[in-house]
Amino acid sequence: MYRALLLYLIKMLLFYKIQMSFDMLNKLFFVTFSFILLHNWTSASDYSVDSRGYSERKTIKFSDNSSYVHFNTTGWWSDSKGNYGKEICFGKTLVSEKSVDLDLVCELTDQNGDKIRVSRKRNSLVGGGVGVATYLDATKQYEFLIGKKCTYAVTHFSADWFYKQQCTNNN
Known about the structure:
Elements: H1 2-15, H2 22-40, E1 47-61, E2 67-79, E3 84-95, E4 100-110, E5 115-122, E6 128-138, E7 149-157, E8 160-167
Antiparallel strand pairs: 1-2, 1-8, 2-3, 3-4, 4-5, 5-6, 6-7, 7-8
């Protein structure tokens, strides 16, 4: 899957001749490398979530070039146990020239109507990066996740996002 995502991004860059700055290419490399590291750390007993979707943003910009962004995201997910469903997230991001402070709360609903509520936080690159997902609440089969803190990586393409999370038995 990671190879496919990387190849897709490279094809997009070459085919559409997208002009990207050196800084943006470094960010793209960082996020791609994070996905590869997460993939290599997985084992059969780990729990992973893969999701993608789109976001709607409302932004207030300040005179110092920082901004406050309100997020509303909608997406689709699947996990390493064969479950799948929809997700919605609400949150905010504070962006300055040197940092990003993202704080989202998401509700995932699976094919059977069971729900997971998770907090996703990160302080990393604009447009993507690595953060921590903390499971706040869950029903039935997902109760084993409550209190777990799991590493995730996310990248953005326009208003679309791609998310990969990994929980190990040690978390």
